[in-house]
Predict the structure.
Amino acid sequence: MEKSVKNKLLPLILLILVVIIDQISKSLVVKYIAPYDFVNCPTFLGGFLRFVFVYNPGVAFSVGASWGENVRRILFSLIPIIVLILVMVVYFRNKDFTKLQRWAICGIVGGGLGNIIDRIFRPSGVVDFIDVQWFGIEESSIKFLRWDRWPTFNIADSAVVVCGILLIISFIVTFVKDAKNKKAAKKGEE
């Protein structure tokens, strides 16, 4: 198999793994944890981590949860599907992405697909269940920062955030390297 094709296909393993792990974890949560039970939920690390089963009919931080079902379906399912298709078209056509960038893109797409599957097949919304403590913020003098827990999330959300951060960092590193190379090339021409 040609090296460039292999470099494009191998990261798809991460995409598939993220979707599988996300969907299995959500199925287990739905099967074994009562929804919205904040008292009897499994707790770890002295309460820092809890598994609390909630449905999120919106997107990040429950944005759009109160919107009509048809609007949510179009905005939170159809548009993301189109975006993910466009991302994958760019992914396969681009020859300049680094290996890390390809892996990060596949992690982001896998997370996106995991949540889109929920939006399509779970009418109540995306299953979120990871609940972590947000130290010291509940005592904040800034009203909108008075949280004692971070908003509940899932494996797909984690993949999008972690891979998104890696992708941004890799773009910055690539930009800096390119700028240094151009500067060195200019000096060499003088």
Notes: The chain has five helices and three strands.
